[in-house]
Write a structure and sequence with these properties.
With 189 residues, the protein is an alpha/beta fold. It has a domain at 5-133: 5'-nuclease (Rossmann fold). 53% of the residues lie in helices and 9% in strands. It contains ten helices and five strands; from the N terminus they run E-H-H-E-H-H-E-H-E-H-E-H-H-H-H. It is globular, with a radius of gyration of 16 Å. The model has no long low-confidence stretch (mean pLDDT 94).
């Protein structure tokens, strides 16, 4: 198992496109993915609010599948740390507490401003946008990363997506730099 640990914020687990590529990369061992039940609860609550058409059992099945797919991802015992933490939004303190308890090196989130460097530095934790994080993962092992991307794209069956369509979905999800970089290798996707 990789020694580098990333705490995945709820907005990373909310987006199926981002979740799939991040967890596929974790599954092959380039980093250790972590989250908490509170993070699960947050993305599920937001998904149910935004997509009431989705079957609640399907969402819960996704949660269980994620917990099974990434061994030891679930962080517990972080709750006593929450009250002592200071962040711009108090509702984000559980994320930092889980990152501390889970020995995370980085918090991966779309909301960079919610985790200022001065709040994370005492714990040796950085914050990264998923675009930056995934570019770094690609840099560790380009061939392995491209294989992860191929697997993610090939899993899309309803409907299947061409390489171009898959890259467009990455871009729409906010992975603009990654989509542009992968576009240079789209014949390999």
């Amino acid at each position: 198992m990789a020694g580098f640990t990333a705490l995945l914020d709820a907005n990373i687990l909310y987006s199926m496109v981002i979740t799939d590529i991040v967890l596929e990369t974790a599954r092959v061992g380039t980093f250790r993915a972590r989250w908490s039940d509170a993070i699960h609860d947050e993305w599920i609550r937001n998904l149910r609010n935004n997509r009431p058409d989705l079957d609640p059992e399907t969402i819960e099945q996704r949660r269980r599948t994620m917990d099974r797919a990434i061994h030891d991802a679930l962080i517990t015992g972080y709750e006593p740390l929450i009250d002592g933490l200071i962040l711009p939004d108090e509702d984000d303190r559980h994320v930092l507490a889980a990152a501390i308890a889970g020995n995370a090196d980085v918090i991966v989130t779309l909301n960079i401003a919610d985790f200022p460097d001065e709040a994370l530095a005492p714990y040796g934790i950085e914050v990264q946008h998923p675009d930056t994080f995934l570019i770094h993962q690609r840099g560790l092992n380009d061939q392995l990363f491209l294989e992860c991307v191929r697997r993610c794209r090939r899993r899309l069956k309803n409907p299947p997506r061409s390489a171009e369509e898959y890259l467009e979905s990455l871009e729409r999800a906010g992975l603009v730099v990654l989509a542009a970089e992968l576009g240079k290798a789209k014949t390999l996707l």
